């Protein structure tokens, strides 16, 4: 393709609202153009990248036996009312009324619609397993859309849904999708990691996120460099850092710590390691009657070591907290601890409190915690001697770098990632709500076992840029680049020789099926090179009169520090080997 | 592809709400599945057809120099307020509020958004001409969605928008799109006709509809079989059928016509040709002040020959009616004619009425019209003698079959069509409203000249079926068929020979890039054949043990009355020649 047949629009400066590098570079390279908050036009250059992502996904989904269809953007509310999501989902679900005042939604995903199709179309065990997918426009009315395509409101997603007769078969469907996702991200040329993720209320262990590795990623990925253990921080298991509780050696002492309410400040004041302190977090649960009135509330004290962070997802798995918890109110805290937050601890409670100790805290001795009195902590605290054993011992903290790997194969490392895919075993969550059954061999209706599998198509484009860029612009993997090769002729309109050589190379590459761009805009060399470095085309060939006089053209890869001189006669073969 | 990797779902009966054959067959063949009124899931079989349409459109748009981008489905109302369409458009524009109560619309087209892009991106004459297009989901909240994909609410449309520096250049852009549309419909394999269409308020003569010819089409297409004259009925010019007015030969006579208020009844009663009668239609126009109060109303009497129909679009072009008209109220009619509707005419008016005669009526003599008295008509009416010449003589009627062609090359014929494409010169309608200017060579801002070019992607699928079907099902053109060849093995699971032969032919065709389906579902032959005739695959090969024993397979084209026996060794070459 020649630039004159296309549309290229680059900017010197990114707009002020672009916070992250991918957003800045996508705007500067003219891949997207803002239409409203979290809503973007995909400009010609950006659409080419998106289509490449879509095509790779489509090929691998088809190869894995999934069948493509297309479900509508505007969906009647009835199906969403069947599963209760019409009411349960927050304002991120865009609701709309048609001219007859009937309720509709703009689809954020399509579980309801595909389950409706399945319950009508997959009537017999002979129709199963089946995996349907579509690549479609989605809308989520994010409260604070930002980061360009990374957290937009309108975006493109591939969502697949598998239907199986039993859990064993559903497990196979899950594995097939997992393998397909691996092939997809390999082919996209991205550095990624699949990590086990929490399954929430559905339970089981079949949920994995596919994360593109990038320092700017929002998610913390936990992995063991010596094994294949990998999980996101919500799920990654934190083993006790102290295997056996030491004997008490210090007396229980109330110590003044005026104005020092954090573990860091207390440790510094007392000149002890932060690892000897314990942090108190107060939660509450409510027992309700059917009308929703609170009959009784229970207050919970969760204890993690001073250098650790509470993991709220893990806390939600503690028996007693599973059905939902909230943070306690200041009134509840004062009522139970006789003290305002900041100096709380498990000793000297006014009213009964359930105590949950992190596995490490449960094995600590001679530790320091709040005294339930403003400006005081207690040192030399020991379980059993100074207070009863905790009601519950559980893993309730975030893993930290250097923690032992749960598989015993070394210590854990942490890297940052951007979630771009998710495979999830749904079980009968939707089939039960919508009565999606098939008839088994005996003619008996059975609930279908489902899985859902998403890939954020447009998000991948942002993530690829977060992973691949430098101060000059985007560095695409070959598979994603809007064009793989750009031919930059110097003086295309002035020199017949340059024009002929450029056209010939362009036509030759195009005939080979290479995505090639010939920049015939007539820009000056500096501006032209800067544009293509910004846009991030992997391979550049510069053709000039001066070079041609010596029978040479110049090749430079996007990551190369300098150009390579190549004979005019050899450039075709040279590129073919580079592109292979 | 093998059926086991795909999804095939046919129905014996079409659902009751399917009124037209394309809707019935699309439902029965499993191409679409209803989700709500006018909202359909595109099932795997249907999506394949849609993608083929999209790909042909995309290739020809690109070849014509248009550049693809993608504009959002959910669009902020602001731009639509700039052009006034947010307020002006009726309830077919789906309006939605986001979580912050800001107004958005679900796009029915994208003039506003593309003009917004153009005014920011196409700043100089050097950027022009430019033609952008996208293929995107559209929504129009039809009052009465019906006919499946033919008049759905959610549908897929290709819409292109050209930007030019002046009218001459815009004319070239228009011609390029017209030519591209011809190539598109040729390649789709559809019988179509491009007809000139009315340009409404924008004026000029550059508007053409692309109509797929089908007896069931909603539109009447007028054409001259001896020339290239073609227009839709709104535009097609009706010449006077009487070139010179004859002399008066009959006396003016009030004639009783009790209970006969239509021209047909009057002609029958009096035993005269319908062509001697004149039909009266009463319109009104209002003069308003700035506040919108009606200052003065004018009543208009429009006269067409008894066998003709008023053309409301043409009426709207009559001087004095151009700025909008309405049908007169009964009170206005009684006030001006002294009579209720049914027996109206131009003689003996109570108050002044503007009289508009169709070209043919203006040349009639000795004609019959209402007497402005219940149960009476007047015969022997002559212009000049019995009443003044009409205030206006104009073409205000629909053309009928056999009318002289406006180009003088014969008589007009009429056929029915389904509008699937439209090319339209917009001029500065949107660029003016949104101040989309470019800087010319002198640095002076100039309004861009625009054109818009739509193709109803999903509508084409319905129209193709209206054009191509028989009692057994759909008959696709090769270019649109979900699969071009279906291999139907008899006893695929029972006979190793059949399986081997079927697999080999499948693999061979697939390697050649042919869209081939091997039906390995294990259906009985009758049901299997019926399915593929319903789905409409153009080429079928039946492989059976009996045939193989004689070294033969059976080929049958979808339109063929019977099968052809072909040697196993020759079937590949045989199909290749059929598919060429």
Automatic annotation (TrEMBL), chains A, B:
Q: Name one GO molecular function term.
A: ATP binding
Q: What is its main location?
A: cytoplasm
Q: Name the InterPro entries for this protein.
A: aa-tRNA-synt_IIb, aa-tRNA-synth_II, aa-tRNA-synth_II/BPL/LPL, Anticodon-bd, Anticodon-bd_dom_sf, Pro-tRNA-ligase_IIa, Pro-tRNA-synth_IIa_bac-type, Pro-tRNA-Synthase_IIa_type1
Reactions that this protein is recorded to catalyse? tRNA(Pro) + L-proline + ATP = L-prolyl-tRNA(Pro) + AMP + diphosphate
Against Pfam families, the record matches this protein to: HGTP_anticodon, tRNA-synt_2b, tRNA_edit
> A single GO BP annotation from the record?
prolyl-tRNA aminoacylation
Record domain Aminoacyl-transfer RNA synthetases class-II family profile: where = 33-477
Q: Where in the cell is it found?
A: Cytoplasm
| Subunit annotation | Homodimer.
| Family label | Belongs to the class-II aminoacyl-tRNA synthetase family. ProS type 1 subfamily.
The name this protein goes by in its record = Proline--tRNA ligase
Please tell me the species this chain comes from: Piscinibacter terrae
The lineage is: Bacteria, Pseudomonadati, Pseudomonadota, Betaproteobacteria, Burkholderiales
């Amino acid at each position: 393709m020649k630039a004159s047949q296309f549309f290229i629009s680059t900017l010197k400066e990114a707009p002020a609202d672009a916070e992250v590098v991918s957003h800045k570079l996508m705007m500067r390279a003219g891949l997207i153009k803002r239409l409203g908050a979290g809503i973007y036009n995909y400009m010609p250059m950006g659409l080419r990248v998106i289509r490449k992502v879509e095509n790779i996904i489509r090929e691998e989904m088809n190869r894995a036996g999934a069948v493509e269809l297309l479900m509508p953007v505007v969906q009647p509310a009835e199906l969403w009312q069947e599963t209760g999501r019409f009411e349960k989902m927050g304002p991120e679900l865009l609701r709309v009324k048609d001219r007859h005042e009937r309720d509709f939604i703009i689809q954020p995903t399509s579980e309801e619609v595909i389950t409706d199709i399945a319950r009508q179309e997959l009537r017999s065990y002979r129709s199963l397993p089946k995996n349907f997918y579509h690549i479609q426009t989605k809308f989520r009315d994010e409260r604070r859309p930002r980061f360009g395509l990374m957290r937009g409101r309108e975006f493109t997603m591939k969502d697949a849904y598998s239907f199986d007769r039993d859990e064993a078969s559903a497990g196979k469907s899950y594995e097939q999708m997992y393998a397909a996702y691996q092939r997809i991200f390999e082919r996209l040329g991205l550095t990624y990691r699949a990590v086990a993720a929490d399954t929430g209320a559905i339970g089981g262990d079949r949920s994995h996120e596919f994360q593109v590795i990038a320092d700017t990623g929002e998610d913390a990925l936990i992995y063991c460099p010596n094994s294949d253990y990998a999980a996101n921080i919500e799920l990654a298991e934190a083993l006790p850092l102290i295997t056996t509780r030491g004997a008490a050696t210090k007396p229980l002492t109330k110590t003044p710590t005026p104005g020092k309410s954090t573990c860091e400040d207390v440790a510094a004041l007392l000149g002890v390691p932060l690892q000897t302190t314990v942090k108190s977090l107060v939660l509450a649960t409510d027992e309700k009657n059917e009308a929703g009135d609170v009959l009784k509330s229970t207050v919970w004290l969760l204890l993690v070591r001073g250098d650790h962070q509470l993991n709220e997802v893990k806390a939600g798995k503690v028996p007693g907290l599973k059905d939902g918890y909230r943070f306690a109110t200041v009134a509840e805290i004062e009522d139970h601890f006789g003290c305002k937050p900041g100096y709380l601890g498990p000793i000297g409670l006014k009213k009964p409190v359930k105590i949950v100790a992190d596995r490490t805290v449960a094995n600590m001795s001679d530790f320091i915690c709040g005294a339930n009195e403003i400006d005081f902590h207690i040192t030399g605290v020991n379980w059993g001697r100074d207070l009863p054993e905790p009601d519950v011992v559980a893993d309730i903290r975030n893993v930290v770098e250097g923690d032992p790997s749960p598989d015993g194969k070394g210590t854990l490392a942490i890297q940052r990632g951007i979630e771009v895919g998710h495979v999830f075993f749904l079980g009968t969550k939707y089939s039960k709500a919508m009565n999606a059954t098939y008839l088994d061999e005996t003619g008996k209706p059975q609930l279908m076992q489902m899985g859902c599998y998403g890939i954020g198509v447009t998000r991948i484009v942002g993530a690829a840029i977060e992973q691949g860029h430098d101060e000059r612009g985007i560095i695409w993997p070959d598979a994603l680049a809007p064009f793989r090769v750009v031919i930059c002729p110097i003086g295309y309109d002035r020199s017949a020789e340059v024009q002929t050589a450029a056209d010939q190379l362009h036509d030759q590459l195009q005939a080979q099926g290479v995505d090639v761009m010939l920049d015939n805009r007539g820009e000056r060399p500096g501006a032209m090179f800067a544009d293509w470095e910004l846009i991030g085309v992997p391979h550049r060939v510069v053709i000039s009169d001066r070079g041609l006089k010596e029978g040479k053209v110049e090749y430079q890869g996007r990551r190369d520090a300098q150009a390579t001189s190549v004979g005019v006669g050899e450039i075709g073969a040279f590129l073919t080997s580079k592109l292979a």
